[in-house]
Amino acid sequence: MPTSATAGDPATRTAGRRYGGADPTERQARRRSALISAGLDVFGTDGYAKASVKSVCDQAGLTQRYFYESFSDRADLLVAVYDDCVDFARTSTIAAARSFLDAAIDETGIIDASEGIPAEAISDAARAILQAFMSALADDARRARVMLVEVVGVSPEIERVRMRAIHGWADLILMLARGSRPPTTRQRLASVGLVGAVIQLMVDWYVAGEADSDIPREPLEDVLDVCVELFVAAHGRLLN
């Protein structure tokens, strides 16, 4: 209970005040979300190296003091933007997998898929699922740039974040292919290799589309075809 001395303090009276129907925690969450959205715009358009805290704040329409209530520095924001891009792509990927599984799925992943995708459906499933992943990047050049280019080689800390995401994708592949059956070491390695192949092919596709690139950009449908063949072959020989 406030004392008589603090009850009249304006800072005390306004600390928990609601504005626009939102309490302070909700307003901070909104500002954080706005900064992540602005970070996607700035990092995904101008690049991380050219970005500044001020440019992100200007894009978000916020002062810099609000930046530091949610993020310690630009790199901290880059991780949040990258994680948001990964979550977006993962949600699209899982949605595409839904019809191929006799399983309960929610936004956290596959909850109960004891056998994984049936072998006879692997080719169609691989095409639908990979197309959803690729479209999540190809339909928004900002997400593609952040996920494929801007996070690479920034710092050891961000490399660990990127590797965590790669292994998260590999776990998803194993879950789709095998359900709840424990994978072998070879199967884990194969799933990481598949993720690496898809990511590198998408990097090549993205970079080839840049104005200063001397590498021809292959049609995304051809990239998809190759990835589907890789997944089908790996499923038949290693993952099943």
TrEMBL record:
<dbReference type="GO" id="GO:0003700">
    <property type="term" value="F:DNA-binding transcription factor activity"/>
</dbReference>
<dbReference type="InterPro" id="IPR009057">
    <property type="entry name" value="Homeodomain-like_sf"/>
</dbReference>
<dbReference type="GO" id="GO:0000976">
    <property type="term" value="F:transcription cis-regulatory region binding"/>
</dbReference>
<keyword id="KW-0238">DNA-binding</keyword>
<feature type="region of interest" description="Disordered">
    <location>
        <begin position="1"/>
        <end position="28"/>
    </location>
</feature>
<dbReference type="InterPro" id="IPR001647">
    <property type="entry name" value="HTH_TetR"/>
</dbReference>
<protein>
    <submittedName>
        <fullName>Putative TetR family transcriptional regulator</fullName>
    </submittedName>
</protein>
<dbReference type="InterPro" id="IPR050109">
    <property type="entry name" value="HTH-type_TetR-like_transc_reg"/>
</dbReference>
<feature type="DNA-binding region" description="H-T-H motif">
    <location>
        <begin position="52"/>
        <end position="71"/>
    </location>
</feature>
<dbReference type="Pfam" id="PF00440">
    <property type="entry name" value="TetR_N"/>
</dbReference>
<feature type="domain" description="HTH tetR-type">
    <location>
        <begin position="29"/>
        <end position="89"/>
    </location>
</feature>
